[in-house]
Amino acid sequence: MSQPLISIIVPCYNVEAFVYKALESVYQQTYKNWECLVIDDGSKDSTLQQIELWTEKDIRFKSFSQENQGISITRNNGLKAAKGEYVYFFDSDDLLDETALEDLYSLIDKDVDIVVGKNVVTVGQNRNITEYLEHYHIPLKKITNNNKELIKLIVEQPIICVAWNKLFKMSFLKNHQLVFKKNLLHEDELWFFETFYNANAIVFNNKPTYYYNWSNMDSITNNFRLKNLEDYLHIIDYIFEKYYINNSNTIFKEFASIYLTHLQMKTIQHGYKQIDKKLKKQASEIIKLNFDKVEPRRTLMVLDLKLETLQYNFKIVKVLNPKAIAKALRYFESTKKMKLFKGNLLKQKAMVINKKKNRTINKVH
Hints:
Layout: E1 6-12, H1 19-27, E2 34-41, H2 47-55, E3 61-66, H3 71-81, E4 86-89, E5 95-96, H4 100-105, E6 114-122, E7 129-132, E8 143-144, H5 150-156, E9 166-169, H6 170-175, H7 187-198, E10 201-213, H8 226-245, H9 250-274, H10 280-293, H11 305-317, H12 322-332, H13 337-356
Parallel strand pairs: 1-2, 1-4, 2-3, 6-10
Antiparallel strand pairs: 4-9, 5-10, 6-7, 6-9, 8-10
Helix pairs in contact: 1-2, 8-9, 8-10, 9-12, 11-12, 12-13
């Protein structure tokens, strides 16, 4: 039985120190029917020359060059050029396990639109594992998306929001017109939501197939600025408009609402926390604008009781300033009596504000 073609899309920008080894790990794949689309996004170093060492060696490597346009447009250009039945995104400073494609493809069936690979962290571009990234604890089991229940899964389970190390059916991406949003930081966060929301079914593998190079400090994940926060809030606005406001299916709307609250909580717990102290005031203002605008309603109990209670309490205290909200969330998640007491004090303060605003928060049952 012939192997279907897998298109590997590799965006590159100033990665002369990494890209050769990254592409070598593609060359070493035990799964042989692949094409690797390597796109130089206007690098100012010798990245393109490193790429060409591989295009000269193996015709399965295809090199593209463009003016700098950012990772979203670069990936989209890769999708346009891809000829494969399946698509796999790979970052140019990381490494693949030699069985990565073979392992992920072995889990594909007619209903599965996404196979999610297991990721490990390395310090440097090597295969010396320092830790395992978040991965679903029940691998090798097909998980269907009846009524968008995959959203419940990714809210309840710690699963890393990245585009790489997932095998996507190209027909699935085309049928739902899924592309990366242009000129946006944290584009993987939106891609993660839209692909899981629309998939028929997914499956998680059970062994590491991807070595994430944590030590590349030029990576966007290691630099959080006001622009990062603004784009993160833009993602929330986008999901609110497309998947909540303009959604006529009440069940689907319920899951969109759950995810929006989840993202607003992450905005406080991760985004606001990482902002430089000098920018906290400005950050607080743009967070407040988003929180005032994006107010999704809930009617059904969907999550486990602990998470439903946390989301409910967050909705109460989101009228406070971000610093106070961050404290409240820490207190709500604590098991210590004094911290729970402090959390209730902040909750009572917020309830007074809510009453003045005639703002009601319905509790789901």
